[in-house]
Amino acid sequence: MLATQKLGSITSTDTVKLWAVQACAHCGGGVEERFRYCPWCASPLRRKLVEFFPAHPRDAGKALRVSRYLDEDPHVRFSVWDETGRVESAVSVEEAEARRLARFLRPRPSPRRHGIAALLDYAAGVSARRSSTGSRKTTSS
Ligand SMILES: [Zn+2]
């Protein structure tokens, strides 16, 4: 999703990437920030990745911005933005802590089911896959 408007307009639960046009440090050509390589000279461009995460409804209007710096001092910076587009606070963590955070946020595996419950889960999955591929055709009468 391309979004250059103010944070106050972010209402979706989708993440929003902010893209801006900047100049390639190598050739000076204009390139969008989302590009990994310069389309004019093929130099690598991305030194920083930015992603916005709209808040839970209890913090409506706010957003979390996560900036990942890929330069000689790799780190991840978290900043809390209010609905006016102002940063309320920020903190940076080192790569190792960012990896630990990613592990913490990883979805937990569902509890393993056994016996007949596991067989029923498996059968439901097979049935759902068959119906989604359309391999079981029905004829209209
Ligand atoms: Zn270039």
Detailed description of the structure:
This protein has helices at residues 95-105, 115-133; strands at residues 21-23, 30-32, 48-54, 63-69, 75-81, 87-94. With 141 residues, it is α+β, with helices and mostly antiparallel strands. The protein has 2 domains: 1-43, no CATH class; 47-107. A 4-stranded antiparallel β-sheet has the order 3-4-5-6. A two-stranded antiparallel sheet has the order 1-2. A hairpin with a 5-residue loop joins strand 4 and strand 5 (75-81). It is extended and about 65 Å long. The model is unreliable at 1-17 and 135-141 (pLDDT under 50). The protein binds zinc ion. Zinc ion binds at residues 24, 26-27, 29, 38, 40-41, 43.
Radius of gyration from CA coordinates: 22 Å
What is the tally of helical segments? 2
Calculate the mean pLDDT score and round it. Answer: 78
Percent range for helical residues?
10-25%
Strand order of the largest sheet: 3-4-5-6
**Main beta-sheet annotation:** 4 strands, antiparallel
Structural shape = extended
Please report the total strand number as a whole number.
6
Strand content: 15-25%
Based on secondary structure, the structural category is alpha+beta
Q: Report the uncertain regions.
A: 1-17, 135-141
Give me the strand/helix succession. EEEEEEHH
Number of domains: 2
Bound molecules: zinc ion
Distance between the termini: 44 Å
